[in-house]
Design brief:
EC number: 1.1.1.88
Largest sheet: 4 strands, antiparallel
Family: Belongs to the HMG-CoA reductase family.
Number of domains: 4
Number of helices: 16
Order of helices and strands: HHHEEHEEHHHEEHEEHHHEEHHHHH
CATH architecture of the largest domain: Alpha-Beta Complex
Keywords: NAD, Oxidoreductase
Structural class: alpha+beta
Distance between the termini: 55 Å
GO molecular function: hydroxymethylglutaryl-CoA reductase (NADH) activity
Bound molecules: NADPH dihydro-nicotinamide-adenine-dinucleotide phosphate
Protein name: 3-hydroxy-3-methylglutaryl coenzyme A reductase
CATH superfamily of the largest domain: 3-hydroxy-3-methylglutaryl-coenzyme A Reductase, Chain A, domain 2
Length: 412
């Protein structure tokens, strides 16, 4: 029998035969079984969980939000909350989501661009009807295929771009269904070699912008001049404009916040990451996503990224915890969710840059990492606080020291 044809017990037995699992390891796999999750993927064996926390208060467009975040990184939620605290002092984040469309691509080579362009212009209404007939419910609720454009990719390569309103869904499956239907038309016309049809994750028609204006007092920190902090944040940000090495790291910090909310809201974080990073390189050089500027009194921050998330579809309606998270988020639309996510990314970035240009990132990071370090060397939940206190006083809070301190603690 093939692995994917086995039932859950048979799969576990097959893995056990290959791996020689201990009794407690088998119990772990069993304990985390979920009948719902088993339906969601192929070759299911167990469920993998990550910590979820909440950013308790971020003001966005004058409304207060509590935001669930899923992450394994100790400092992420603390940093987001700290960023939000500063941002709230400046009146909160102001966000806009100008359009919310996904792009499906029909990719054709061996093609004459002008022939395809003319065909698309002349047959636009027919092609739109054809696409919408493939998933009529989306058009019925006001969405669906709205317009079609073409791009000449050179050397006979052409992309026919389908602009699709997916309403409250992220829409990958809907877009793919519509794109394949339209691809069928081009195949029949024999205007080139239709290679494939699929959505693009470079969702440039689902851009969200978030802005903050922070009076210097909002970013004040004991031992530092607030105006100096603002200027150093601007400078730090300018390095990322120039240097992809630094930009990648700054954007990773932004994604600490974005991905954590994308995951908590049951959305596809790979799709969001791919789109965001492509957007960061849209002019040919990979750059930072957030821009910071300042005048004599105020620090200004702005981020624009593609954020095609949904509040229905995919795993969202299936996973009970995701539904609870949507209740915490209290958003009514996919657009509103997208704006919350981008606002959290901006808060995350502010917190990281302020730490970097003042006391350095490790001061705050390591306090939180120490708990993970204690667990990593085998401390029990009861031993963790004692070991963390000892690590705080140690010259080097590294794994070797943690192991040694734990051994000494147990010997006592
Ligand atoms: P679904 O396939 O679940 O489609 C959305 C569903 O939501 C449809 O069944 C739709 O109903 C229903 N729905 C109910 N109310 C609404 C509403 N108001 N607006 C819109 N839809 C509504 O999910 P998506 O198409 O959003 O696809 C997302 C999934 O696709 C994710 O799991 C993602 O991981 C995956 N994916 C991603 C890819 C990528 O990013 N490259 C590629 C392929 C898959 P109805 O059927 O009646 O229209």
């Amino acid at each position: 029998m093939k692995f994917h044809q086995m039932n859950w017990q048979q799969r576990l037995a097959a893995i056990d035969a290959n791996t020689n699992l201990s009794t407690s390891e088998k119990a772990l796999l069993n304990h985390n079984y979920s009948a719902i999750n088993e339906q969601m993927i192929e070759n299911y064996i167990t469920s993998f969980s990550l910590p979820e926390g909440v950013l308790p208060n971020i003001i966005i467009n004058d409304d207060a939000y509590q935001v669930p975040m899923v992450t394994e990184e100790p400092s992420v939620i603390a940093a987001a909350s700290n960023g939000a605290r500063m941002i709230n002092m400046g009146g909160g984040v102001h966000t806009t989501n100008v359009s919310r469309e996904m792009i499906g691509q029909v990719l054709i080579n061996d093609a004459d661009f002008s022939t395809i362009e003319t065909l698309v212009t002349n047959q636009a209404a027919h092609l739109i009807d054809l696409g919408n007939a493939a998933h009529p419910s989306m058009a019925q609720r006001g969405g669906g295929l709205k317009r079609i454009t073409t791009r000449d990719l050179g050397s006979g390569f052409v992309s026919v771009d389908l602009h699709i309103d997916t309403q409250a869904a992220m829409g990958a499956n809907v877009v793919n269904t519509i794109s394949e239907a339209v691809a069928g038309y081009f195949k029949a016309q024999q205007v080139g070699n239709v290679v494939m049809a699929i959505l693009s994750n470079f969702a440039t028609s689902s851009l969200v912008t978030a802005k903050v204006a922070l009076p210097f007092k909002a970013i004040a920190k004991a031992g530092f001049e607030a105006a100096d902090i603002a200027q150093r944040i601007v400078l730090a940000n300018q390095f990322s404009q120039r240097d992809p090495y630094r930009a990648t790291t700054e954007n990773k910090g932004v994604m600490n916040g974005i991905d954590a909310v994308v995951m908590a809201s049951g959305n596809d974080w790979r799709a969001i990451s791919a789109g965001v990073h492509a957007y960061a390189a849209r002019d040919g050089q990979y750059r930072n996503l957030v821009t910071w500027t300042c005048d004599d009194t105020t620090l200004y921050g702005e981020i624009t990224v593609p954020m095609p998330v949904g509040i229905v579809g995919g795993s969202i309606s299936i996973v009970p915890l995701v539904q609870t998270n949507h209740k915490l988020l209290n958003v009514d639309s996919a657009s509103q969710l997208a704006q919350v996510i981008v606002a959290v990314g901006l808060a995350q970035n502010l917190s990281a840059l302020r730490a970097l240009v003042t006391s350095g990132i490790q001061a705050g990071h390591m306090q939180l990492q120490l708990k993970s370090l204690a667990l990593a060397v085998g401390a029990t939940i009861a031993e963790v606080p004692v070991l963390v206190t000892q690590l705080q006083q140690a010259a080097h809070a590294d794994m070797q020291t943690a192991r040694q301190l734990l051994t000494e603690m147990r010997e006592k």
